[in-house]
Amino acid sequence: MIDTFSSAALALCEAGRVLHAQGWVPATSGNFSARVDDQSMAITVSGRHKGRLEADDIMRADFQGRPLTEGKRSSAETLLHAMLYARDPAIGAVLHTHSVNATLLSRGREGELMLEDYELLKAFAGVETHATRLVVPIFANDQDIDRLATKVATYFTQHPPVHGYLIAGHGLYTWGRDIPETLRHIEAFEFLFACELQQARAYPQ
Ligand SMILES: [Zn+2]
Q1: Which of 46, 99, 102, 130 would you label with 173, given CA atoms 20 to 30 Å apart?
Q2: 5-202, what's its fold?
């Protein structure tokens, strides 16, 4: 957990540069947050370019998604961050990206993507062998974020813990105990998404 708002804000700006350099948050898309304390998070201000974030582009919000920084508004998707922190005190960061591979792999799909028998699964916290089945739920895209957040929360109450989920034709939400772990999870997901897509292209069913 990052202990102050300012250090969380700086770390989120740096994460933005890393993720934008990979092409995973194009055209102001995506949003990032980090836990500040047991009631609030630092989160990106709506509409900012994620590769050029500065401290002023990060604000504070509570775990109901309400802004705590006057005059600033976070993404419409803030509730999807807030609900994760409220549910699980071990979560220290949530990063949401819009990569080509996450978009393509989820587009027109709803249900679950199974990732199994990949050595890189060991990049996920708590996974110690390739002989693991990592489930990635895929939810239909929805501009009604309250409704989507309820759907995600309901899934979480009915299934074992997951490391991330996809929104169809939209992107990836993943999290971890801090920003570095969450960045590692994104890199692992992106590698695995690329494998899945390239395998489907090479061996069409
Ligand atoms: Zn999004």
Answers
A1: 130
A2: L-fuculose-1-phosphate Aldolase (3.40.225)
